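name: query_chain
kind: protein
chains: 1
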Amino acid sequence: MKKNYYLYSLLLLFPLFSSGQISLNASMAPATNTAMIYYDANVPSPAFTFGKSGISNTWDFSVIAAVPGADDTLSIVPPASVPGGGAFPTATHCTYEGFDGSRDMMHVDAGGVTLLGFMGDPIGTGSLMPVLANPPVVTMSFPYTYGSGGTGSTTIQIITTGAAIGQPAYDSVRYRSALSAIVDVIAAGNMILPSGSYPSLLERRINTTIDSAWVKGILTGNQWSLVPGFPQTTTDSSFYWYSNQNLLHYAHALYDDTGLHDVHYYKNTISITGLNEHEIPGTALAAYPNPVAGSFDLKGLNPQGIRQWNIYAVDGQEVLRGQTLQGPINVQTLAPGSYILSVTGMDGRLQQLKFIKD
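structure:
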C-alpha cells in the first residue's frame, strides 16, 4: 500500500493577532503559468541554524552552499489545464513540485487560501484520480502575519478494487488518511537571498498523519479487515519562510525522524505556457530496454542540454540522482519495481518516463 505523502502539508490556520510585521493577503497570489525555482541545499554542512522567535531576525540563506545543478521547481498552472481538474470547479490555482505526479488544487480569495484536494495516485493504481480533502483545508486566513496560527484536521478516503492495486484476492480496498496539524507563525525579520533582502515571516508546522487500510473479500469472510501493519502514524515538522512578494514560500527547512533533510531557498521565477509545455509528456522520452535489468539508454532528450536527472520510487522517495548523462544509466542497485526518471534541461523543462526494474 502506497503511503500518502501528498497531503502532509494540509493545515488549518486561524489568525490570532496582528503586529506591525508584513501581512500576506490575496493580492500576493502567485501568477499562473509560472514556476518558482529554488536553490537546493539538501542537508547543509555545517548544520543550518536559524532564529525561531521574535521580530528582529536576520536569516541569511545566501551563505548556504547549494548543490550545483540541483534546483527545485514549484510550478503554478490553471486548474483547468490539468486532466481531471474539473473535479475541483472552485479551484483558482494548481501547484506541483518537480517530477511529482500529484497536483494540489487551491482556491484563493479575499478570506484566505483553501486547499481543496489533489489529483494524484496515493494508492499506486497507476493513474491519477481526484482526491478531495474532507473538509477542505484553510491553509492561510488573511491577514496572515506574525502571531497567526492554529490547529486543524482533515481526511481523505479512497475505495477501490483489489485488482486495481495488484491484490485480486480482495474485492475491495479502503484507504483512509487522517491528517492534523499545529501551525504557528513564530518569528519575523528579514530574509537575505542571492536576489536581495525581503521582509519575512517564519512559519512552523507540526504535521501528524494516521494512515489506515482495510480489505474485504473471500479471504476475510466478505467483512472489512484491517491490513496488517496499519494504522501507521507519522509526525514531522517543517519551517517555511514567506516574503511580501508571494503567498508561496521563499525558503523551507524540512525535518523528519532522521533530522533535517532538506533546505531550499528562492532563486528566480520563470514563465511557462502551461502544464503540457512545461512538463513534456513521458512519451517524449523513452528508455531502452524497458523493463531494465542493469542499465538503460535514453532517446528523445531535451536538445537544450541536461541540468540534472533524478530517479524516484513510486512513493516519491528519491533513490538515485546525477548531473550529467554521458552514457547508460546504471540502476543495478535498485530493487525490482516501478520507478520514475525525471530529467531537467538547462532551460528548466522537465522530461519524465516510467520504467520497470526487473
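note: The first strand starts at residue 23 and ends at 24.
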